[in-house]
Design a protein that fits this description.
heterodimer, A: 496 residues, mainly alpha, two-stranded antiparallel sheet, 2 strands, B: 496 residues, two-stranded antiparallel ribbon, 19 helices, 76% helix, globular
């Protein structure tokens, strides 16, 4: 089997029209098809895992000819980081699809919904498993169009307005990414991120600086760190719950992944030695701290169920950016990537549970809820698990990754005194996240009940949430699989 | 290869055009008139494409020996005074795409313009005649031949705009014709100076003589006149006023045809004169002037489109913005830029044609402004899918063809050291995405006030979907066209 990754990308693209045709007959079958495709892809990716762990360079590469004139080729590659991101993405899409069956059942146009979901999954997974910048950009923009229509068509309140904002912000960012890609092509004559990294080593630093800034700006918009976060709260809270789970879980993680892989991995090494390199990393750390505080503070005072979670995503992207800013300290990077994985499942679960609340209660203000632990036990378990994980409580997923990140931070402090203050501030920010998580649990699930009658959650929604609960706890007590996978990446090769 | 083979496509288009009027008159009375006309057009385009294919084969057979093939009427001493035809990879490429695009737009007008109307025969005949002239202009090898063919096509375009004979279209056509007459006066004046300086109008001879010219004052004067003349004809910004009026007042089939053939042809003329004849900076450094004109075109075209409510006029403004993007590539004078230009000629033509065609379908049922467009996304799914493809291709989204056009153009600008021009292009292209998204928003987000079902005209959708499929296909696999352009890139390195 030499073309596993090609199959992984092509399957959902072919699945999209099929899902549309099947969905016209019965949306359930379309959902079943997509979840089947996701499972198949997960299995395919797991067959690569041993190769990646055991081979010499810890990589798995496939390449097909595409547009030779401009050096664009269908180059797929998988190393530990991309594999773990791709696997967790597929897990999340799988659960979101199962969740959709009941959650979306009384909505119109579900055939289109599932077809768009399949396209979205192709773009999302593609971003993580390609090393050719042109193909990367294709997948990057392929995430955008289906998301726009899913948010706009099936969202709440004024969905198209939120979708519009989301689209314009991220597209503007993407255009700057394109500019950076074009400049890399001009300087190196290559579009492969690994050979471009080598070629960039011999280029004058002044242009490379602009490339780095342009690319990072584009990725930071997708990642929604603070000066570029304005699209996130609207888009995440107005989208239908499965879409919010994907947006908050993986789409913004794709931004963080791209910063790591392209900004830091490909472009930064050539200018790491000059002072601009460390200034750049320090400013990333500062942005990370600002995002963490900003997101946490607003999450503390927000009353809308989904907006609390949306702002907490900004805060957590701040943690990740802080971790990435300590490049190339191995622990910090492992912690940041692991946090992307853990945050993806936790946040996905959080949004699904919030969706379940909104679906059954048809209210979204947490002050009107209360005492729901008895009435919706599964949702309560899911919501509390997610909230505790987001707060960084041991035995839940996010604790481990935050811990590894701080280990990396202390190592960084030894060499670079700058990181002392950001690290202290970040430790304070984790306390804030505990505060809003407890406030959420207290208002929604505990206390006196303000709601009379609640219908039971439909079974598939429960199953989807339980799968993620199990994964969150599993990752919290036994993170070894992902840690080993991520640690197998040679950071010397990635830069530094 | 001899002159006859170059003449065959041009002459056959002219002959067929003359025969079209009697054929239409005969068919007009019959019951199955559209079938008769359809088979007539199939005959025309089969014959002409055989001639074009023959020319292509002949040219490629001897390309290695003589890349720039000059064919003159008279031999001997008078060669430099004779009318000349020049065949190179660019003109071959242009002839191919013009034949293809002309065939598709003619198919559309066949259904759009009723063959029973008394003047319809002349309409089709004019379209064929203009195609002949535009192809002739591509093959011409001296300024005078180019001028004659080009003005002939411009005058013909005026009558295509006039077809409906409403007061508005008469007004717009008058405006167009006056502008064209001013332009041709400018060009003739410039040509006379060049003839005085060089003693010939043959492209290569002029280039040789200009290179050794000592006193440049007169030549600069002639350049100003000629550049102004051709700038008026291709609607570069300070001279763009005729275009929105003309394309809005003309029937949609005319707008589609003109934007896809005559517009792209006018950019080709700019490319030919500027890059091929005036290239070594020792002749004349014209790049900075063009760079500023390009910036004006992009900014003004996009801003005017941003505040426009009439859909057809909006697309017309996009045509102006497209001139700006084409000019970026022309200004950069690199092989990559020429490649981007040639790809843009095809893709820009296809996309504007597609947009005007769908707008034509919408105009037929009384939809004129963005407000009327509300909710059409659900009522006319196929038409809006086509318009969506056009919109996304314009704003440079992968996987639509417009993306590669823009990518090549921006990369060429960076390669030529004009990064600031690329950045302006990038910023205006965000504006472009914004107003196209507004259009999409109207189609899908707003509720319609119309009652009942709207039927979609199946026969008009055939050419529309031919274009849609071409745009998507070229967006995913542009290698076919890029391979066709490759010889051009090799040839351009011989001149620059």
């Amino acid at each position: 089997m030499g073309n596993i990754l090609l199959l992984v990308t092509v399957l959902p693209v072919l699945g999209a029209p099929l899902a549309y045709l099947l969905g016209k007959k019965s949306p359930r079958i379309a959902a079943f098809l997509i979840s089947l495709i996701c499972l198949a892809e997960i299995v395919l990716l797991f067959t690569i895992v041993p190769q990646v762990l055991n081979s010499v360079d810890h990589k798995y590469v496939e390449s097909y000819s595409w547009i030779p004139t401009i050096y664009a080729s269908l180059t797929f590659f998988a190393d530990g980081i991309s594999l773990s991101m791709a696997i967790i993405t597929l897990v999340l899409i799988f659960t979101a699809t199962i969740f959709s069956v009941n959650y979306m059942q009384d909505r119109r146009g579900l055939a289109e919904y599932y077809a768009l979901l399949a396209l979205l999954s192709a773009g999302l997974v593609g971003v993580f498993i390609t090393s050719n910048l042109m193909l990367f950009y294709f997948c990057w923009e392929l995430m955008l169009v289906p998301s726009y229509f899913i948010i706009g068509e099936w969202g709440y309140r004024k969905p198209y307005r939120a979708a519009f904002k989301f689209f314009i912000f991220t597209h503007a960012g993407a255009i700057f990414v394109l500019l950076g890609i074009g400049a890399i092509f001009m300087l190196t004559g290559d579009l492969d991120i690994f050979s471009a990294q080598v070629a960039l080593m011999n280029t004058p630093p002044d242009l490379v600086m602009w490339i780095l800034l342009s690319l990072t700006l584009g990725f930071a918009v997708k990642m929604a760190v603070v000066p570029f976060h304005m699209w996130l709260p609207d888009a995440h809270s107005e989208a239908p719950a499965p879409m919010s789970a994907l947006l908050s879980g993986v789409i913004i993680s794709a931004g963080a992944y791209a910063i790591l892989r392209i900004s830091l991995g490909t472009v930064l090494p050539s200018i790491l030695s000059i002072s601009f390199g460390s200034q750049f990393l320090h400013s990333l750390a500062i942005l990370g701290v600002i995002s963490a505080f900003f997101g946490s503070f607003i999450a503390l005072v927000e009353n809308d169920v989904k907006r609390i979670i949306a702002y907490s995503s900004i805060a957590h992207m701040g943690y990740v950016l802080f971790g990435l800013s300590m490049f190339p300290y191995v622990e910090a990077i492992i912690g940041a990537v692991l946090h992307l994985v853990n945050h993806a499942v936790s946040k996905g679960l959080f949004f699904l549970s919030a969706g379940s609340l909104m679906k059954q209660l048809e209210i979204r203000d947490i002050r009107e809820m209360g005492g729901l632990a008895n009435k919706m036990p599964i949702t309560a378990i899911a919501g509390s698990t997610a909230a505790l994980s987001i707060a960084g409580i041991p035995a839940f997923a996010c604790f481990i990754s935050e811990f590894i990140m701080f280990v990396g931070a202390f190592k960084a402090i030894k060499n670079d005194g700058f990181y002392i203050i950001p690290t202290i501030l970040m430790l304070i920010a984790t306390v804030l996240s505990l505060a809003y998580a407890l406030r959420y649990i207290g208002h929604v699930f505990l206390g006196k009940s303000k709601v009379e009658e609640v219908e039971k959650e439909p079974s598939l929604m429960k199953i989807a949430m339980l799968i993620l609960v199990v994964i969150v706890i599993l990752l919290g007590v036994w993170p070894t699989f992902f840690v080993e996978l991520i640690a197998s990446v040679e950071f010397a090769l990635l830069g530094g | 290869m001899n002159l006859l083979e170059v003449f065959l496509p041009i002459v056959s288009f002219i002959v067929f055009s003359l025969l079209t009027i009697p054929v239409t008159n005969i068919a007009g009375g019959k019951r199955r008139k559209s079938m008769i006309m359809l088979s007539w057009f199939i005959v025309i385009f089969t014959v002409t494409s055989i001639f074009v294919a023959n020319l292509v084969a002949e040219y490629y057979a001897q390309m290695e020996k003589e890349p720039f093939l000059n064919l003159t009427f008279s031999r001997g001493l008078n060669v430099i005074f004779s009318s000349t035809f020049m065949i190179d990879a660019v003109s071959i490429y242009m002839a191919i795409i013009f034949t293809v695009v002309s065939a598709i737009t003619l198919l559309y007008s066949l259904f759009y313009i009723d063959a029973r109307e008394p003047l319809s025969g002349r309409y089709y005949a004019l379209m064929l005649l203009i195609t002949a002239c535009v192809i002739g202009a591509c093959f011409s090898g001296d300024f005078l031949t180019l001028f004659i063919f080009w003005e002939a096509s411009a005058v013909g375009s005026g009558f295509l705009m006039l077809y409906k004979e409403s007061p508005r279209s008469i007004h717009a056509t008058l405006k167009y014709l006056i502008m064209i007459i001013i332009a041709s006066a400018f060009i003739v004046y410039g040509l006379s100076i060049i003839y005085g300086l060089a003693g010939t109008l043959n492209f290569w001879a002029v280039k040789q003589i200009l290179m050794s010219l000592k006193d440049k004052h007169l030549f600069i004067l002639s350049f100003i006149f000629m550049a102004t003349g051709y700038a008026i004809e291709s609607a570069i910004v300070p001279f763009h006023m005729w275009l929105p009026d003309a394309y809005t007042a003309a029937p949609a089939s005319s707008s589609a045809f003109l934007s896809a053939l005559v517009d792209q042809g006018s950019y080709y003329v700019l490319l030919r004169i500027l890059v091929y004849i005036l290239t070594p900076p020792t002749i004349l450094d014209w790049r900075i002037v063009l760079a500023f004109l390009s910036i004006f075109s992009m900014i003004l075209g996009n801003l005017l489109a941003l505040i426009e409510h009439n859909i057809k006029r909006l697309i017309a403004y996009v045509c102006i913005a497209d001139v700006g993007y084409n000019l970026i590539a022309i200004t950069s004078v690199t092989p990559l830029g020429v490649m981007g230009n040639l790809y843009f000629f095809l893709v820009g033509g296809l996309t504007t044609a597609l947009s005007f065609m769908t707008v034509g379908i919408l105009n037929n049922i009384g939809i004129k402004t963005l407000g009327d467009l509300s909710g059409i996304g659900r009522k006319m799914p196929l038409t809006s899918l086509a318009l969506l493809t056009g919109a996304f291709s314009f704003s440079g989204f992968p996987p639509f063809a417009g993306f590669f056009a823009k990518y090549l153009v921006f990369t060429a600008a960076i390669e030529a050291g004009l990064s600031w021009l690329a950045i302006v292009g990038v910023l205006t292209s965000i504006v472009q995405a914004a107003y196209f998204l507004r259009l999409v928003n109207y189609m899908f987000a707003k509720k319609t006030r119309r009652r009942g079902e709207l039927s979609e005209p199946k026969n008009l959708l055939i050419p529309v979907f031919m274009l849609t499929i071409m745009i998507i296909f070229l967006g995913i696999y542009p290698t076919i066209i890029l391979e066709l352009i490759k010889p051009v890139v090799q040839q351009i390195t011989l001149i620059i």
